[in-house]
Amino acid sequence: MSNSYHSHRRRRKSGAGRLGLAGALTGIVGIAAVAAGIVYFRPDGAAGGGGRPSLASQGETGAQSTAPLPKTGPPVNFTTPEGYGYSLAAVKAGTDRQPLGATEAPPSGTTYAYADYVLTNSQRRPVLLDFPADLFMPKSQVPSDAQDRCMPQPGIPDDLCTLPNHSEITARLGGSKAPVDDNGDQMMPAGATYLVRIATDLPVKDGLSAGDLKMYVWNARYTSDRKGVEIAFP
Protein backbone atom coordinates (compact mmCIF):
# COMPACT_ATOMS: atom_id res chain seq x y z
CA MET A 1 0.00 0.00 0.00
CA SER A 2 1.00 3.59 -0.36
CA ASN A 3 0.18 4.57 3.19
CA SER A 4 2.54 6.71 5.18
CA TYR A 5 2.03 4.36 8.16
CA HIS A 6 4.29 1.33 8.00
CA SER A 7 3.77 -1.60 10.34
CA HIS A 8 6.92 -2.69 12.15
CA ARG A 9 6.72 -6.41 11.43
CA ARG A 10 10.24 -7.24 12.60
CA ARG A 11 10.16 -7.87 16.32
CA ARG A 12 12.75 -6.34 18.60
CA LYS A 13 15.33 -8.74 19.97
CA SER A 14 14.28 -10.56 23.09
CA GLY A 15 15.37 -9.15 26.41
CA ALA A 16 16.13 -12.63 27.75
CA GLY A 17 19.88 -12.18 27.29
CA ARG A 18 19.81 -8.92 29.18
CA LEU A 19 17.87 -10.53 32.03
CA GLY A 20 20.35 -13.39 32.17
CA LEU A 21 23.21 -10.93 32.43
CA ALA A 22 21.40 -9.06 35.18
CA GLY A 23 20.96 -12.34 37.04
CA ALA A 24 24.66 -13.12 36.76
CA LEU A 25 25.54 -9.73 38.19
CA THR A 26 22.96 -9.30 40.88
CA GLY A 27 21.78 -12.79 41.80
CA ILE A 28 18.32 -14.05 42.51
CA VAL A 29 17.17 -10.83 44.19
CA GLY A 30 18.15 -8.76 41.15
CA ILE A 31 16.31 -11.10 38.79
CA ALA A 32 13.19 -10.88 40.88
CA ALA A 33 13.36 -7.09 40.84
CA VAL A 34 13.67 -6.97 37.05
CA ALA A 35 10.86 -9.49 36.55
CA ALA A 36 8.59 -7.46 38.80
CA GLY A 37 8.99 -4.47 36.49
CA ILE A 38 8.04 -6.27 33.26
CA VAL A 39 4.76 -5.13 31.66
CA TYR A 40 3.10 -7.84 29.63
CA PHE A 41 0.07 -7.76 27.31
CA ARG A 42 -2.72 -10.26 27.64
CA PRO A 43 -4.56 -11.45 24.54
CA ASP A 44 -7.46 -9.13 25.41
CA GLY A 45 -5.14 -6.14 24.86
CA ALA A 46 -4.94 -5.10 28.52
CA ALA A 47 -1.57 -4.44 30.09
CA GLY A 48 -0.49 -6.57 33.02
CA GLY A 49 1.55 -5.31 35.92
CA GLY A 50 -0.71 -2.29 36.40
CA GLY A 51 0.31 -0.68 33.07
CA ARG A 52 -2.01 0.96 30.54
CA PRO A 53 -2.23 0.01 26.87
CA SER A 54 -0.45 2.36 24.48
CA LEU A 55 -2.23 4.03 21.57
CA ALA A 56 -1.04 3.43 18.03
CA SER A 57 1.65 5.94 17.17
CA GLN A 58 0.19 7.58 14.08
CA GLY A 59 -0.01 11.27 14.92
CA GLU A 60 -3.56 12.48 15.43
CA THR A 61 -5.20 9.07 15.25
CA GLY A 62 -8.33 10.08 17.14
CA ALA A 63 -8.11 6.68 18.83
CA GLN A 64 -8.92 8.31 22.17
CA SER A 65 -12.51 8.95 21.02
CA THR A 66 -15.28 6.41 20.66
CA ALA A 67 -18.25 6.41 18.29
CA PRO A 68 -21.23 4.24 17.35
CA LEU A 69 -20.99 1.91 14.38
CA PRO A 70 -21.76 3.80 11.13
CA LYS A 71 -23.75 2.55 8.17
CA THR A 72 -21.48 0.58 5.85
CA GLY A 73 -21.40 -1.35 2.65
CA PRO A 74 -21.03 -5.14 2.71
CA PRO A 75 -18.00 -6.26 4.76
CA VAL A 76 -15.21 -8.20 3.07
CA ASN A 77 -12.91 -10.56 4.99
CA PHE A 78 -9.18 -11.06 4.44
CA THR A 79 -6.52 -13.32 5.96
CA THR A 80 -2.78 -12.73 5.68
CA PRO A 81 -0.13 -15.44 5.28
CA GLU A 82 0.67 -15.00 8.98
CA GLY A 83 -2.91 -15.88 9.85
CA TYR A 84 -4.09 -12.38 10.78
CA GLY A 85 -7.77 -11.85 10.00
CA TYR A 86 -9.40 -8.53 9.06
CA SER A 87 -12.85 -7.38 8.01
CA LEU A 88 -13.27 -4.16 5.98
CA ALA A 89 -16.49 -2.28 5.28
CA ALA A 90 -16.68 1.06 3.43
CA VAL A 91 -18.52 4.02 4.96
CA LYS A 92 -18.20 7.02 2.60
CA ALA A 93 -15.88 8.89 0.26
CA GLY A 94 -15.49 12.51 -0.72
CA THR A 95 -13.17 15.50 -1.04
CA ASP A 96 -11.98 18.01 1.53
CA ARG A 97 -9.25 20.65 1.72
CA GLN A 98 -8.26 19.25 5.13
CA PRO A 99 -9.45 15.62 5.28
CA LEU A 100 -7.20 14.77 8.24
CA GLY A 101 -6.96 18.09 10.01
CA ALA A 102 -4.17 20.58 9.52
CA THR A 103 -2.38 20.07 6.21
CA GLU A 104 -0.89 22.16 3.44
CA ALA A 105 -3.62 24.01 1.58
CA PRO A 106 -4.06 22.63 -1.94
CA PRO A 107 -3.62 24.94 -4.95
CA SER A 108 -6.64 26.78 -6.30
CA GLY A 109 -8.98 24.51 -8.22
CA THR A 110 -7.85 21.40 -6.34
CA THR A 111 -8.67 19.55 -3.15
CA TYR A 112 -7.83 16.23 -1.42
CA ALA A 113 -9.70 12.93 -1.76
CA TYR A 114 -10.54 10.69 1.17
CA ALA A 115 -12.56 7.64 2.16
CA ASP A 116 -13.71 6.25 5.51
CA TYR A 117 -13.98 2.56 6.28
CA VAL A 118 -14.47 0.25 9.25
CA LEU A 119 -11.53 -2.01 10.07
CA THR A 120 -12.20 -4.98 12.37
CA ASN A 121 -9.95 -7.60 13.90
CA SER A 122 -12.08 -10.64 13.08
CA GLN A 123 -10.16 -12.97 15.36
CA ARG A 124 -10.19 -13.79 19.07
CA ARG A 125 -6.55 -12.80 19.47
CA PRO A 126 -4.56 -9.62 18.79
CA VAL A 127 -3.52 -9.01 15.18
CA LEU A 128 -1.04 -6.60 13.65
CA LEU A 129 -2.51 -3.13 13.07
CA ASP A 130 -2.47 -2.70 9.31
CA PHE A 131 -4.44 -0.70 6.73
CA PRO A 132 -5.21 -2.97 3.75
CA ALA A 133 -7.36 -0.56 1.68
CA ASP A 134 -6.16 1.80 -1.05
CA LEU A 135 -8.05 4.75 -2.57
CA PHE A 136 -8.49 4.99 -6.35
CA MET A 137 -9.77 7.72 -8.65
CA PRO A 138 -9.98 8.31 -12.43
CA LYS A 139 -6.62 9.48 -13.73
CA SER A 140 -8.46 12.20 -15.65
CA GLN A 141 -9.35 13.80 -12.30
CA VAL A 142 -5.70 14.13 -11.25
CA PRO A 143 -3.86 17.39 -12.08
CA SER A 144 -1.37 17.04 -14.92
CA ASP A 145 1.65 17.70 -12.68
CA ALA A 146 0.69 14.74 -10.45
CA GLN A 147 -0.44 12.19 -13.04
CA ASP A 148 2.94 10.46 -13.05
CA ARG A 149 2.46 9.85 -9.29
CA CYS A 150 -0.97 8.27 -9.76
CA MET A 151 -0.24 4.59 -10.18
CA PRO A 152 -2.33 1.81 -11.71
CA GLN A 153 -2.30 -1.45 -9.77
CA PRO A 154 -2.75 -5.13 -10.65
CA GLY A 155 -6.35 -6.23 -10.91
CA ILE A 156 -7.80 -2.67 -10.84
CA PRO A 157 -9.64 -1.12 -13.84
CA ASP A 158 -7.16 0.58 -16.18
CA ASP A 159 -8.80 4.01 -15.95
CA LEU A 160 -8.23 4.16 -12.17
CA CYS A 161 -5.04 4.96 -10.28
CA THR A 162 -3.94 5.60 -6.70
CA LEU A 163 -2.02 8.64 -5.44
CA PRO A 164 0.36 8.57 -2.48
CA ASN A 165 -1.83 8.55 0.62
CA HIS A 166 -1.86 7.82 4.32
CA SER A 167 -4.33 6.31 6.77
CA GLU A 168 -5.25 7.19 10.32
CA ILE A 169 -7.61 5.81 12.94
CA THR A 170 -10.23 8.49 13.61
CA ALA A 171 -12.35 6.66 16.22
CA ARG A 172 -12.78 3.43 18.13
CA LEU A 173 -16.16 1.84 17.48
CA GLY A 174 -18.53 -0.15 19.66
CA GLY A 175 -16.48 0.30 22.83
CA SER A 176 -13.34 -1.20 21.27
CA LYS A 177 -10.04 -0.93 23.11
CA ALA A 178 -7.23 1.17 21.70
CA PRO A 179 -4.28 -0.42 19.87
CA VAL A 180 -1.46 -1.64 22.07
CA ASP A 181 2.30 -1.73 21.64
CA ASP A 182 3.73 -5.24 21.74
CA ASN A 183 7.55 -5.09 21.54
CA GLY A 184 7.44 -2.37 18.89
CA ASP A 185 4.47 -3.76 16.91
CA GLN A 186 1.12 -1.98 17.06
CA MET A 187 -1.58 -4.60 17.65
CA MET A 188 -5.38 -4.54 17.40
CA PRO A 189 -6.95 -6.21 20.44
CA ALA A 190 -9.21 -9.21 19.82
CA GLY A 191 -12.44 -8.11 18.12
CA ALA A 192 -11.45 -4.42 18.02
CA THR A 193 -13.20 -2.22 15.45
CA TYR A 194 -11.89 1.15 14.28
CA LEU A 195 -13.02 3.88 11.92
CA VAL A 196 -10.16 4.60 9.52
CA ARG A 197 -9.74 7.49 7.09
CA ILE A 198 -7.47 7.19 4.07
CA ALA A 199 -6.59 10.51 2.37
CA THR A 200 -4.45 11.49 -0.60
CA ASP A 201 -1.18 13.31 0.02
CA LEU A 202 -1.40 15.01 -3.38
CA PRO A 203 -4.33 17.13 -4.61
CA VAL A 204 -7.03 16.09 -7.05
CA LYS A 205 -9.22 18.27 -9.25
CA ASP A 206 -12.15 20.08 -7.64
CA GLY A 207 -14.45 18.33 -10.09
CA LEU A 208 -13.81 14.92 -8.56
CA SER A 209 -17.04 13.58 -7.07
CA ALA A 210 -17.63 11.01 -4.35
CA GLY A 211 -18.99 8.66 -7.00
CA ASP A 212 -15.65 8.77 -8.83
CA LEU A 213 -13.80 7.34 -5.82
CA LYS A 214 -13.31 3.62 -5.32
CA MET A 215 -11.66 1.61 -2.58
CA TYR A 216 -9.81 -1.62 -3.28
CA VAL A 217 -7.61 -4.12 -1.51
CA TRP A 218 -4.99 -5.26 -4.03
CA ASN A 219 -1.80 -6.02 -2.09
CA ALA A 220 -0.62 -9.61 -2.51
CA ARG A 221 -0.62 -10.08 1.29
CA TYR A 222 -4.41 -10.03 1.10
CA THR A 223 -5.28 -11.09 -2.46
CA SER A 224 -3.11 -13.94 -3.66
CA ASP A 225 -4.79 -14.16 -7.08
CA ARG A 226 -3.53 -10.68 -8.11
CA LYS A 227 -7.08 -9.37 -8.46
CA GLY A 228 -8.16 -6.22 -6.67
CA VAL A 229 -11.12 -6.67 -4.34
CA GLU A 230 -13.50 -3.70 -4.21
CA ILE A 231 -14.77 -2.52 -0.82
CA ALA A 232 -18.15 -1.15 -1.91
CA PHE A 233 -19.72 1.95 -0.36
CA PRO A 234 -23.28 1.76 0.98
What does this protein look like?
Strand 2 (76-79) and strand 3 (85-96) form a beta hairpin. Residues 6-63 have low confidence and may be disordered. Strands 1, 2, 3, 4, 8, 11 and 12 form a seven-stranded mixed beta sheet that branches. This protein has a four-stranded antiparallel beta sheet with strand order 7-6-13-14, with no helix packed on it. 9% of the residues lie in helices and 30% in strands. The protein contains one helix and 14 strands. The chain has 234 residues and is mainly beta.
Write the layout of secondary structure elements.
Layout: H1 16-36, E1 66-67, E2 76-79, E3 85-96, E4 110-121, E5 127-128, E6 134-138, E7 160-161, E8 165-173, E9 180-182, E10 185-188, E11 193-200, E12 204-205, E13 214-217, E14 229-230
Parallel strand pairs: 1-8
Antiparallel strand pairs: 2-3, 3-4, 4-11, 4-12, 5-10, 6-7, 6-13, 8-11, 9-10, 13-14
